[in-house]
């Protein structure tokens, strides 16, 4: 409702706030992405090991479902642990739209990462860092589950293509 198109938004934001406006939320994004990605792989590996312990006789036909479930769980756990940084990132990114948000209630302005964290803690308490967690967990479960599902599927296909048995079949 504020900008008629993307070009107008970019030009207006640049003219009114300068080039720094395009980098709002970059610090918490960079701070959050490394632990989030690392935690995804960490918990995926842990859950894979746990699934081998729970179901020692692994059936090949259930491996894809197991990868999907382990990936989904890893996504939910890692998103839950890093979500506070997501909240801070999003709040910093919407800065500058105060006049558009005024109709929705209280408008907050932040002076950076630490100021945003302090204000959330002071005004909303620890629960403020987890607002909107549920839809984010659903997204993390689906996306991470599918990422690991396809990753394992393609790794298996590549290994099968590379194995000596598959080369013998092609020659014969």
From TrEMBL:
Record membrane topology: Multi-pass membrane protein
UniProt keyword terms in alphabetical order: Membrane, Repeat, Transmembrane, Transmembrane helix, Transport
GO cellular component, one term: membrane
Solcar repeat start and end residues: 1-50, 62-157
Gene3D superfamilies hit by this protein: Mitochondrial carrier domain
InterPro entries according to UniProt: MCP, MCP_dom_sf, MCP_transmembrane
Entry-linked Pfam families: Mito_carr (PF00153)
GO biological process: transmembrane transport
Presence of the UniProt keyword Repeat in the record: yes
Domain of life: Eukaryota
Transmembrane segments: 21-43, 140-160
Major subcellular site: membrane
Localisation per UniProt entry: Membrane
PROSITE patterns xrefs: SOLCAR
Protein family (similarity comment): Belongs to the mitochondrial carrier (TC 2.A.29) family.
This protein's name: TPC protein
Source organism of this protein record: Oxylabes madagascariensis
Taxonomic placement: Eukaryota, Metazoa, Chordata, Craniata, Vertebrata
Designated gene of the protein: Slc25a19
